[in-house]
Write a structure and sequence with these properties.
With about 280 residues, the chain is an alpha+beta fold. The protein has 6 helices and 17 strands. The radius of gyration is 18 Å and the shape is globular. The mean pLDDT is about 95.
C-alpha cells in the first residue's frame, strides 16, 4: 500500500498554505502509477522520493501534478523536507530533481514548527515575446494598461519556467478570473508551468497569485518554484540586491493564506526559499 504524507506548505496552519502529497519509498513507482496517485490525491503536486544509491540523506525525487509531471516544485519540496524529518531528523537533505540538485535544510524555529529552506537550481530571466504576452493577457482578460511599468513582463525560471506579470493595482490581482482551457493551451505551447501574477506593496513585500492550468489546477495558493524565479527576476531588474529577504504573500484571495520568504545570498546565483510545513488535518 502506498502511504501518502499530506502536508500544507508555506504555513503554520493546516487550513492555509498549499497542500502537497509526499510519497517516500525504497524505489519510485512506475510513471503510470505516480501519475495515477497524483491524480487521486488531487493536490497541485505530489512528490515521490526514493533514496539515491551510495549517499546518505540524498533522494531522487519526481513531481507530478494531476495531469502531468513537472521538473521542479517548490512547495512539494518544502513539504518533502519536513516529511523526511520524521525518519531522519532535522538537518540537510539533498534532492536530485529533473532540474538539478536541490539542497533542503530543515530546522525547528522558535515556535516549535519545522521551517524548511530550499536552494533553487540556477535561475534565468529572459524577455517575453510580445505576441505571447498579448495572448496571455487576453486569456486573463487583462489590459496592458493594468500592468506595472516598473516591473516589465518576463520569463523567469529557477527549475521551472514562469511568466511574471505585475499588476499596477492590488484590485486587479484580487479579481482573477480567466479562460482555463485557453490559457492552458497557450502555456503548454510556450513551455510555461505557472503564471507569477504579482502586486508590489513595497520593494521587499509582494502579493502573488499563480494560475496553474497546465497541471489541471486553477490556482496554486503557494508556489515555491515561482517565488525563487521571482527573486531572480527582481535581482535581474536591479530592484533588489544581495543580501536581502523578500516576503511573498499568496493564497489569501482563495482562502489559503501562505507566506514565502525569498532570500538572495551574496556571490550565489541560486535563490533560497523558506517556509513552514505542517500535516494536513
Amino acid at each position: 500500500m502506498t502511504i501518502v504524507h499530506r502536508l500544507a506548505a508555506f504555513t503554520q496552519d493546516p487550513v492555509g498554505g498549499n497542500p502537497a502529497g509526499v510519497v517516500i519509498g525504497s524505489t519510485h513507482p512506475s510513471d503510470e502509477e505516480m501519475q495515477l496517485i497524483a491524480a487521486e490525491v488531487g493536490y497541485s503536486e505530489t512528490a515521490f522520493l526514493a533514496p539515491a544509491e551510495g549517499a546518505v540523506r540524498r533522494y531522487r525525487v519526481r513531481y507530478f501534478s494531476p495531469l502531468m509531471e513537472v521538473p521542479f516544485c517548490g512547495h512539494a519540496t518544502i513539504a518533502a523536507g519536513v516529511a523526511l524529518v520524521g525518519g531522519a531528523g532535522t538537518g540537510r537533505f539533498e534532492l536530485l530533481t529533473k532540474a538539478g540538485l536541490v539542497p533542503v535544510d530543515v530546522r525547528r524555529d522558535g515556535s516549535g514548527h519545522f521551517l524548511a529552506t530550499l536552494t533553487s537550481p540556477p535561475p534565468s530571466v529572459d524577455p517575453i515575446d510580445d505576441l505571447l504576452l498579448g495572448h496571455v493577457l487576453a486569456a486573463l482578460d487583462w489590459s496592458r494598461s493594468e500592468l506595472d511599468p516598473a516591473l516589465p513582463p518576463a520569463r523567469a525560471s529557477a527549475g521551472a519556467a514562469h511568466l511574471v506579470l505585475a499588476a499596477r493595482h492590488r484590485a486587479r490581482l484580487a479579481e482573477l478570473d480567466y479562460d482555463f482551457e485557453r490559457l492552458r493551451s497557450i502555456m503548454m505551447e510556450a513551455g510555461l508551468i505557472t503564471l507569477q501574477l504579482v502586486w508590489r506593496e513595497t520593494t521587499l513585500r509582494y502579493h502573488a497569485r499563480a494560475p496553474f492550468p497546465v497541471g489541471g489546477v486553477v490556482e496554486d495558493p503557494a508556489t515555491g518554484a515561482a517565488a525563487a524565479a521571482f527573486g531572480a527576476y527582481l535581482r535581474h531588474l536591479g530592484v533588489i540586491s544581495a543580501p536581502c529577504t523578500v516576503t511573498i504573500l499568496q493564497g489569501a484571495d482563495m482562502g489559503r493564506p501562505s507566506t514565502l520568504l525569498v532570500e538572495l545570498i551574496p556571490f550565489q546565483d541560486s535563490v533560497r526559499v523558506s517556509g513552514h510545513a505542517v500535516p494536513m488535518v
